Amino acid sequence: MIHKNTPLKEVLALAAPCRCNACNHGCKFGSGSLVGDDAKRIARFLNISEEDLKKGFLEEVELFNKKLPRPRLIREKNKPYGRCVFFDDEKGCTIHEVKPLECKTSISCKDYGEELSVWFMVNHAVDVDNAESIRQYAKYIKSGGKLIEGARIEQLVPDKVKLRKILKYEIL
Ligand code: SF4
Ligand code: SF4
Question: Cα–Cα distance between 88 and 11 in angstroms, integer?
C-alpha cells in the first residue's frame, strides 16, 4: 500500500517503464508537472539549457494553489486543453526516459495507479504551509477524492486550532 511517506525510490519502482496507448491517452489532453530535478534531466536529455527548456517547452500550471512547471500544451483555438508538446502520434512520449515525475506516477493499468497519483499530489502539489492549498485539499477530500494513508488533513496540519482557523478563512 502506498503511504504519503513512501520513499521516491519505492514509488519509482512501482512506476512501470513501459509505454502503451492507455497511458498515452492523457498526453493528448494534458501533461504532467515537473518537480525536483526533472527540468535538469529533461534539459540534459534534449541537450539544451534549462533556460531554453523553460522558454521553449514549459508553461505553468496551478495545482492546489501551487504553481508548477509542466510541458507546454499545444491547444486548438479557444480550448483549455491540448496535447503535450513532447507527444508524438507514432513514437508516443519523446522524452519517455526522463519524463516528469507526475507522468511517471500516472499509471492507468494498475490497481495502485490512483494511489500513486495521490502520492504525487500530497507530496508535490498540496503545500502544508499555504492555507489556500490546505482549503483546496479539504474540498478535494470532501468531494470524495481518494485518500492515502498518512494524508488525512489532520495529519497534514496536526495543530487543531490552526487547522480550524485555516478552514474558517481566519488564516489567509
Ligand atoms: S503502465 Fe500500463 S497502461 Fe501504462 S504504459 Fe505501462 S502497460 Fe500501458
Ligand atoms: S512528458 Fe511525455 S508522458 Fe508526460 S504528458 Fe508529455 S508526452 Fe506524456
Answer: 26
| Domain total of the chain | 1
Is the Cβ atom of 106 under 6 angstroms away from ligand 2?
no
Whether pTM > 0.90 for this model: the answer is yes
State pLDDT tens for residues 72-113: 999 988 888 999 999 999 999 999 999 999 999 998 888 999
Give the C-alpha distances (Å, rounded to integers) separating 20 from 11, 16, 17, 28, 74. 20, 11, 10, 13, 21
Residue 4: phi and psi, rounded to 5, are -55, -40
Does residue 165 form part of some domain? no
Starting from the CA of residue 61, give the closest ligand. 2
Residue whose Cα lies nearest atom 1 of ligand 2: it is 99
* pLDDT 10s digits, 1-14: 899 999 999 999 99
Instruction: Tell me, yes or no, whether 161 lies in a domain.
Output: no
Q: Residue 118 sits in which domain range? A: 8-127
Q: Helix or strand or coil: residue 2?
A: coil
